[in-house]
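User: For my dataset I need records formatted as: sequence, then structure tokens, nothing else. Please produce one.
Assistant:
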Amino acid sequence: MPVATLALGDAGCILLATAAGFAFHRELEASAASRFAATFVPFLASWWLAAWLAGTYTPGRAGGWGGVTRVFAAAALAAPLASVLRAAWLGTAVVPVFVLVMGSVVAGLLLVWRLAAETVLARRGSS
């Protein structure tokens, strides 16, 4: 699968996780837009860096069970980094529970997305 497709799907997962968090906390009004950006942008940037470092965009390493472990490794690296960047952006402290929850939700969505992408590729390859 092309790297751009994987990266866009990853961005969609992070966008969905961010929106879900704001909806869960009933903060989807327009006044929360800057805080939304302060969550989404650091998580996206941190994920892309961590994903690149973990090899999740490397052809031949992105799929299969190795790719699944790379998604978890990248998420484990990205969540704390993103939370530090978010806290700096907002001028607040890092909240450990936020790191765990947002990191887990993002990792779960990314896992579903990556497994779905892998399934589609496998079906195309066997046709």
